[in-house]
């Protein structure tokens, strides 16, 4: 299994990963829309490649704002069903987090399972005074500083680029 950054030719295979993982097209459509959206740049996009060259997992970070402070949304992450629960999703998430940190990014927001994301360092956003722009249970709206004190003085409502409103 190789974990590497997305290449131009990967787009169709990435679509197939999300369509299979989520059993619907919405997340695949989101990835394609975010790729085209200027407001969503920069993006950090990593894939997992199986031995035969097949792309079996993908994770994307893209630009959002907490009030006027640039942040990143982790969305979506998906692994082909037969490849799930083998550590691939976790490895993708660790790699994309490292990539963003090395690029100087300060924090990441995710809407996801509270049983899965805390292992990477995500905590309840509301505990930092950070809120979603839509109604969501507090335990699934999470945030992670990428550096010490990365969230100091950062609070308010998260603002997503347009492609998210379709999901
Ligand atoms: C969530 C997902 C990306 C995790 O990738 P993965 O490679 O299966 O995950 P890992 O092997 O690294 O970690 C396994 C852990 O993920 C969690 N997990 C995996 N699938 C899960 C599911 N369907 N529901 C809840 N937790 C799940 C469990 O904690 C699991 O640990 P366990 O096997 O000890 O129970 C993958 O299961 C997936 O694509 N799911 C469908 C799409 C999705 O829900 N994406 C995330 C949206 S928040």
Automatic annotation (TrEMBL):
Keywords: Acyltransferase, Transferase
Chain coiled-coil ranges: none
Superkingdom field: Bacteria
Domain N-acetyltransferase: 1-147
Any GO molecular function: acyltransferase activity, transferring groups other than amino-acyl groups
UniProt xrefs under InterPro entries: Acyl_CoA_acyltransferase (IPR016181), Bact_Acetyltransf (IPR050832), GNAT_dom (IPR000182)
PANTHER family (UniProt xref): ACETYLTRANSFERASE, AMINOALKYLPHOSPHONATE N-ACETYLTRANSFERASE-RELATED-RELATED
Name of the featured protein: GNAT family N-acetyltransferase
């Amino acid at each position: 299994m190789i974990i590497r950054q997305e290449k131009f030719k990967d787009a169709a295979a990435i679509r197939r990963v999300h369509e299979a993982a989520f059993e619907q097209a919405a997340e695949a459509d989101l990835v394609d829309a975010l790729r085209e959206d200027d407001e969503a740049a920069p993006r950090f996009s990593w894939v997992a490649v199986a031995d035969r060259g097949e792309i079996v997992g993908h994770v994307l970070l893209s630009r959002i704002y907490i009030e006027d402070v640039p942040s990143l949304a982790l969305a979506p992450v998906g692994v082909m069903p037969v490849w799930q629960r083998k550590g691939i999703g976790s490895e993708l998430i660790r790699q994309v987090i490292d990539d963003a940190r090395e690029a100087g990014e300060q924090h990441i927001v995710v809407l996801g399972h509270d049983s899965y994301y805390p292992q990477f360092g995500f905590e309840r956003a509301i505990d930092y005074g950070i809120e979603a722009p839509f109604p969501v249970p507090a335990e699934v709206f999470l945030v992670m500083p990428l550096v010490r004190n990365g969230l100091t003085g950062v609070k308010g409502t998260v603002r997503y680029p347009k492609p998210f409103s379709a999901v």
